[in-house]
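Input structure tokens:
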């Protein structure tokens, strides 16, 4: 987080961390991460497929990509 832009840090601190993928299904992983980071942590709805579903939405409407892409490399 030391190299993360301040505006992104404030978003993460406010919104928290969302876990996706198979690792998100490990029992208690959200609590471990929340304890270590002191940030709110939640597991995405259907963590095994949420990333591919999100990619599918972007492929159907590429204007969504413009709303989320970062211009600078961090």
């Amino acid at each position: 987080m030391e190299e993360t832009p301040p505006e992104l840090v404030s978003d993460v601190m406010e919104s928290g961390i969302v876990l996706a993928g198979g690792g998100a299904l490990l029992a208690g992983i959200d609590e471990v991460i929340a304890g270590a980071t002191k940030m709110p942590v939640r597991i995405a709805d259907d963590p095994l497929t949420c990333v591919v579903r999100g990619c599918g939405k972007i492929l159907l409407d590429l204007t969504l990509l413009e709303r989320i892409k970062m211009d600078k490399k961090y």
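The CA atoms of residues 54 and 67 lie 13 Å apart. The first strand starts at residue 17 and ends at 19.
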